[in-house]
């Protein structure tokens, strides 16, 4: 993959290492859930504070996972998860002229692109709500217990990197966006992570839910206040010609026989 930028090479290497680590975490969770079922008691109510459990380490790991989302670690994080930050916003020439009152027709194009991305986000939200309702019903019918719900969250923890490194159903099936860099819901993964365990009432799940709401809340509030940061029509840093290779982009090119170059064709992010 000689066409990768140096940053992308490092990100892919670290992401594959993280992927292996998350698989080990999943295996550990399964072993604890089946071999030491008493450990699961700390998930309920305020049992979190009664004694130390190996699941406290999992809680710390997932809390850090959320905190890291908010840190401006430009050299170790993909652009897709940082595009809500001012530092990652590079106005396109068209947007700059629009802000100066010289390009009024830009507004219609921007609104059209914004609606397209919003449609994909609403589809994903509807799918997640459906999963939540089904999970709640299965929990009420005692088909799913604390063990299965915890393992479900651990599976989603692994699945996050599957979407980036291997195949993303959100991109290819639900939203039809081009890559992770342009993904409208990049930081929503924190909510998906805690979706199963939120049905286990207790400090463990509710504290993680709070963290996920903070991450997604900051993302969505920024989108509401500064939508121009999220779309390639207004943010040149999200356009393919300025990409140079990012996580979640290379496998898209391989799947579409795009080779030999680190930059895609098109001035507006089109491949």
What would you note in describing this structure?
By secondary structure, the chain is an all-alpha fold. It has one domain (6-71, 78-255). It has 9 helices and no strands. The protein has helices at residues 6-35, 54-69, 93-99, 106-140, 146-165, 169-175, 189-194, 203-225, 250-255. α1 (6-35) runs antiparallel to α5 and α2 runs parallel beside α8. The chain is elongated.
Task: Note the run of SSEs as H and E.
Answer: HHHHHHHHH
Give the mean pLDDT: 87
The helix fraction, in percent, is 55-70%
Shape: elongated
Percentage beta strand: under 5%
Features:
mainly alpha, 271 residues, 9 helices, elongated, 0% strand, single chain, disordered C terminus
Short description:
The protein is an all-alpha fold. It has one domain (6-71, 78-255).
Layout: helices, strands, pairs:
Blueprint lengths: L5 H30 L18 H16 L23 H7 L6 H35 L5 H20 L3 H7 L13 H6 L8 H23 L24 H6 L16
Helix pairs in contact: 1-5, 2-8
């Amino acid at each position: 993959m000689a066409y990768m930028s140096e940053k992308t090479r490092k990100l892919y290497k670290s992401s594959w290492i993280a992927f292996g680590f998350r698989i080990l975490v999943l295996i550990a969770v399964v072993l604890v859930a089946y071999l030491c079922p008493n450990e699961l008691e700390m998930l309920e109510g305020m049992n979190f504070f009664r004694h130390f459990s190996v699941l406290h380490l999992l809680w710390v790991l997932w809390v850090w996972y959320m905190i890291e989302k908010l840190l401006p670690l430009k050299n170790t994080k993909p652009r897709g998860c940082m595009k809500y930050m001012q530092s990652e916003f590079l106005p396109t020439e068209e947007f700059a002229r629009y802000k100066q009152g010289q390009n009024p027709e830009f507004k219609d194009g921007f609104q059209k692109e914004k609606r397209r991305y919003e449609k994909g986000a609403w589809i994903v939200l509807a799918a997640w709500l459906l999963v939540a309702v089904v999970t709640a019903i299965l929990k009420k019918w005692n088909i799913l217990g604390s063990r299965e719900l915890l393992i479900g969250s651990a599976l989603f923890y692994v699945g996050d990197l599957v979407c980036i490194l291997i195949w993303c159903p959100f991109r290819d099936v639900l939203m039809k966006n081009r890559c992770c860099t342009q993904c409208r819901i990049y930081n929503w993964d924190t909510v998906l992570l805690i979706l199963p365990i939120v049905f286990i009432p207790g400090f463990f799940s509710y504290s993680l839910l709070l963290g996920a709401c903070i991450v997604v809340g900051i993302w969505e509030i920024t989108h509401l206040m500064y939508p121009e940061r999220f779309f390639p029509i207004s943010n040149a840093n999200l356009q393919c010609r300025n990409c140079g290779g990012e996580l979640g982009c290379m496998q898209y090119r391989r799947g579409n026989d795009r080779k030999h170059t680190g930059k895609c064709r098109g001035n507006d992010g089109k491949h």
